[in-house]
Write a structure and sequence with these properties.
The chain has a domain of about 210 residues. The chain is built from 21 helices and 12 strands. The protein has a two-stranded antiparallel ribbon. A two-stranded antiparallel ribbon has the order 3-4. Strand 1 and strand 2 form a beta hairpin. The longest helix is centred in the middle third of the chain and has 33 residues. The protein is globular.
Length: about 600
């Protein structure tokens, strides 16, 4: 019986080294795991970290609401939650005791507070996520394992905390979004924590958060349902713990510094300015759109930065970093020609993005070798929070310019030869063995490409694609992309293929317009923003092209004008654009939601 290829790799590279390489992560470059995650489930984890100053571990949701089988708790369903809440006399939820009432109650939970596995709509499916209608939603440990959020809440929390130094985010920091503080000290906590006060030791007592019923006259039913579920749990979850896991919040800056700063500014300004003015459900949808477009920009910018690093061996400066250009179909699929142009743009983008797993593997293999090098491991630049200097060092070795590069590259060459020998001896993947011997001249690249091939599509390329798909929120009402399946004749066979186009959903347009009617500075009021300036801003900050052709993709002037007309029409229909005549400078954006305060971050 043939052995698994991972066992062959472990025999050659040792189990410890294989374990470090057999993954998709490389946090110094991209501080999240490029695997599937759910944007709608991020905020409760962020609220928990803001309040307690550490990552979330196990809570009591399953034990409280789930049934048991042979002494083992089962994952709760909507029906289980309804039955438990109605059985609690202190819940003060009346009028839902008959079957129709229970069904209505379950629909309320499903609409506002809880989400089923795979977004199923029934009451008997496993509950998988909780929505942040109120701060106390962070008491509910969904998803059950916080690592399933792939480090995205930690990254967003670190960006908002905006700490310039240190390996970990410090508690009681400065600014609008410190961690480990009371509700009044963090803008996100104060926004979601209405009618809350702390009774007890605020930092260590997981039950010290208290909902004050007497001050709850402005709390909506969506918030109240989350509050009642949290009260049934009795307290917040414990700290995170586990193998290779720390409860502390890492302070890591992405290599794509420009995209990270765009994301930080967007979230900071939007939360600070509009949190109290936009209705809660609309605010959450808009905020998710902002997180999504920021993460798409971060993932694609990271791919672009690492492509330049692989070519030159140096991380480009922030001023030289730019977003990935994408053509937007402003008609949302109604104009076939514009849709095809956007699909062509996305397809080319994905073709280049698929190289990212190999570049991440190159970094992991170099990192592993350098950190264990006898003469280098004590001289390495600090890799946190900003790993630019460290990755530049890896680039010097990769391109053979470092004094120790020759010896290190020789060691990689030996790894390639020994791994090829072992694969041939086992009769496994001969094409990989051949590439290890006679592929590219650079042995680091040979080993990285071989490792990605041996891990397979499911553990590499498809994981990166899922992360980008989730960030795009494809086909969701507040997402950035729509998808269609087409069947085409290729090489004599009929094959199906998914094509994606970039679009502006109404919620995403709402977010972009409202966010950019405010500058990223404290005390700045609304400022005028013309349509041409807005289109320029979309290109420069997010790489979204509407009235111009993206670099490398020819588009006729007629089609660009048609796309711009669609875009204007969409803005006018949403009440976001006014203009007294056809002069471009007179076409001004305006908000749909008015705010009382002029403070921004």
């Amino acid at each position: 019986m043939p052995r698994p290829v991972k066992s062959i790799v472990e025999d050659v590279l040792t189990p410890q080294r294989t374990r470090r390489l057999w993954t998709v992560n490389y946090y110094p470059a991209l501080p999240i795991s490029p695997i599937a995650f759910d944007i709608s489930a991020l905020l409760p984890a962020m609220l928990y970290m803001a309040r307690f100053g550490h990552r979330r571990g196990r809570g009591r949701f399953v034990q409280t609401f789930g049934k048991t089988r042979d002494g083992t708790p089962l994952a709760p369903t909507i029906k289980d939650v309804v039955d438990h809440l109605l059985s609690r006399p202190i819940s003060a939820i009346d009028g839902f005791d008959d079957p129709v009432g229970k069904s209505m109650f379950g629909d309320l939970l499903l609409a506002w507070c809880l989400g089923n596995s795979k977004h199923a709509e029934g009451h008997l499916d496993q509950v998988q996520r909780v929505y942040p209608t109120h701060y106390l939603a962070c008491w509910i440990d969904l998803p059950t394992v916080v690592i399933n959020l792939r480090g995205v809440p930690e990254l967003l929390t670190a960006l908002l905390a905006h700490q310039d130094s240190g390996e970990w985010i410090d508690t009681h920091g400065t600014g609008y979004f410190p961690v480990g503080v009371t509700h009044a000290e963090n803008r996100l906590l104060s926004l979601f924590g209405r009618s809350m006060e702390i009774r007890g030791t605020h930092g260590t007592d997981l039950s010290s958060d208290t909902f004050v019923e007497a001050r709850a006259d402005s709390v909506g039913i969506d918030e109240l349902l989350a509050i009642r579920m949290a009260q049934a749990c009795g307290g917040a979850p414990l700290k995170a713990k586990g193998r290779d896991e720390s409860e502390r919040i890492p302070n890591r800056h992405p290599l794509a510094r420009c995209a990270a700063e765009v994301l930080r500014e967007d979230l900071s300004v939007f939360i600070e300015v509009y949190g109290d003015s936009v209705p809660r459900q609309a605010f959450l949808q808009m905020l998710e759109s902002g997180i999504g477009i920021g993460l798409v920009n971060l993932l694609l910018s990271s791919a672009r930065v690492l492509a330049e690093w692989e070519r030159t061996g140096a991380v480009p400066e922030s001023a030289q970093q730019s977003p990935w250009p994408l053509f937007v179909d402003a008609s949302r699929g109604q104009d076939r020609t514009l849709r095809d142009l956007s699909e062509e743009s996305v397809t080319e983008c994905l073709r280049c993005y698929e190289r990212l797993p190999v570049r991440m593997m190159i970094l992991r293999t170099l990192d592993d070798r350098v950190r264990n090098h006898r003469k280098l491991h004590n001289q390495l630049p600090v890799a946190t929070p900003d790993a630019t200097q460290f990755i530049d060092l890896l680039g010097e070795i990769y391109h053979g310019r470092h004094p120790r590069a020759e010896a290190i590259l020789d060691a990689f060459h030996d790894d390639c030869q020994r791994l090829a020998d072992s694969l041939e001896a086992e009769g496994e993947v001969p094409e990989v063995a051949g590439a290890l011997r006679s592929g590219t001249d650079n042995p680091v690249l040979r080993l990285a490409e071989a490792m990605c091939a041996l891990m397979g599509d499911k553990l590499q390329r498809s994981q990166f694609m899922k992360a980008l798909e989730n960030a795009l929120m494809t086909d969701l009402p507040n997402g950035l992309a729509i998808k269609r399946r087409v069947s085409r004749q290729q090489h004599g066979e009929r094959r199906s293929q998914d094509l994606r186009s970039i679009v502006f959903t109404p919620t995403l347009l709402d977010f972009l317009v409202h966010r950019h009617l405010r500058k990223a500075a404290k005390g700045k009021p609304f400022h005028s923003l013309s349509l041409p300036d807005f289109l320029k801003l979309l290109r420069e900050r997010y790489g979204l092209y509407v009235d111009r052709e993206p670099p490398g993709q020819p588009v006729s002037q007629e089609l660009l004008l048609r796309n711009k007309d669609w875009f204007e029409r969409r803005l006018r229909d949403l009440g976001l654009l006014i203009g007294v005549n056809d002069a471009e400078s007179m076409k001004q954006l305006r908000p749909r939601y008015q705010v009382e305060s002029s403070d921004a971050v």
